[in-house]
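P.,

For your records, the input lines for the assembly:
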Amino acid sequence: MNLYLKLLSGSLRSRMQYKMNFLVSSLSYGLIMAVDFILLAAILQRFDDVKGWNLYEVGLLYGISSVAITLYRVFCVEVHNFERYMVEGEFDSLLIRPVSPLSLLLTKNIDLSRIGGTIQGILILVISIIGLKLNNVELFLLLIYLPVTIISGLLICFSLGLITATIAFWTQRIKDFQTFTLYAPFNAANYPMNIYPGWLKIIFFTVIPVGFMNYTPVLFLLNKGGDVWNLALPPLVSIVFLFIALRFWMFGIRHYHSTGS
Amino acid sequence: MIQAQQLNKHFKIYETKKGFIGSFSSLLSTKHHVVRAVDDISFSIEEGEFVGYIGPNGAGKSTTIKMLSGILHPTSGKITVGGFSPQKKRKEVAKKIGIVFGQRTQLWWDLPLRDSFDILKEMYKVPDEKYRQFLRLYDDMLQIGKFMDTPVRKLSLGQRMRGDLAAAMIHDPDILFLDEPTIGLDVNAKTSIRAFLKELNENEKKTILLTTHDMDDIERLCSRVIVINHGQMVLDGTLEDLRKNIGLPSVMEIQYRVKPNTDDIQLEGIERMTWEDEKLIIDYDRSLLSSPLLLQKVTQWGEPVDIQMKEPDIEQVIQKIY
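Structure tokens returned:
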């Protein structure tokens, strides 16, 4: 823990060395998120019903997934940008320490400029929950369950990010893979899964299990179907998926090729 | 301390074609050739030895060091470092070794040197008292105190290398792997780093494995030399064994005002004389022909305007071992 704080404060102070850059990147990211939000609201205003999901119900899905995804972007920035370690051969320096390379990656940096996205997600959640006008029991259950689904979602995002990063052990570059394994599924998870064709749904509930991040539990919480199992699935799936991702990562490290001196 | 048995590391190099379609098809193709970066190398290094590990670029030096430190997994063969396999017990081995890569700093680039040390202290769980001793000792040996509070990116190459060396010693490892620690340094910086390494080896009894391109490093530091070329071991012996094979290779460059006729000059110890316009480059063996004597000779042949001693090219030196 002590080491975690030391490393983190180190990385923050490194960032602060370039004050202007830090401010500009935070500001521009906040601006992008704001535009994104306005666009979504505009779209939802036009279609007040998406396959049986109203504005606030979609808002709930969107809020959960965007909080989970942005938390991943804040805390797992070095996993997300793992390509750099392969292309520049920096991974060597993680392997010479008596600490696991994954913990070194996770402590090396946090991307505070992305925290604006998390705040925006929380805002959407608050607005949606107020708009849903749930009865007391439903509201209580939802509020209790929110942290569980967000943490499960974060774990699923992290596992996807880690699996994609592991691919870099063979391909060096992963930017193109990320479009398919991260950006597209993350986007898709913002909306109800029943709008997608069958084959896509199968993918989102198996190899890229982003459907479990929010759709599965919200279905039950909003009385749209399913049973109490829908609440147990997200943590279970996320833990199994995390286990698979970690095993794949360990397998990848064994195949690490390093770069020429 | 360090054992390697029949160590092999083969890389598969897949052929890549140009263009988008080409790179896509090469993703699926299995056409490749195998590069034997390390080819059946065995050695054993005892406690307190100072071993030079030399060879031309791409000979497999760095690959070997990366396998010994647990970064790479060998294709086949067995390694033990400080009693553990670096592949199976990487973290245990990491506590026993210090590593310096001359081409790449292990320090936190944007932070003052002191902060890098603080982070490493936590990482290796060094007790406070030991850490204070470390700072005192290494300020003595490397004079790092003067730039402890300067961000690493503002240090000179020589200062940075001293910082890197100290950082590698923070957990007081028994074994040191140094991959070209003197690369790019000026003479003064090289001298101070050599003095430091010698002290580490002689007084602190550290076991050191050093790769270098600098013949001077080898001659001044190493009691034992392992030479590899194309991944294979070509020599494992004392510095004397190396000398028997290659002598003391040296290079002198003389710029003459007018090019003298040197066709009939026969001098024992001169291996090669090449002309570049008015500049004469002499490769000679210092064990057969002393530098002062050669200096005297070259001034007799003509009128030199400039004379320089050059580092011999290690690639050429290695070729002589066959």
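Two observations worth noting. The longest strand of chain A covers residues 49-50. Residues 63 and 121 of chain A are 5 Å apart (CA to CA).

Regards
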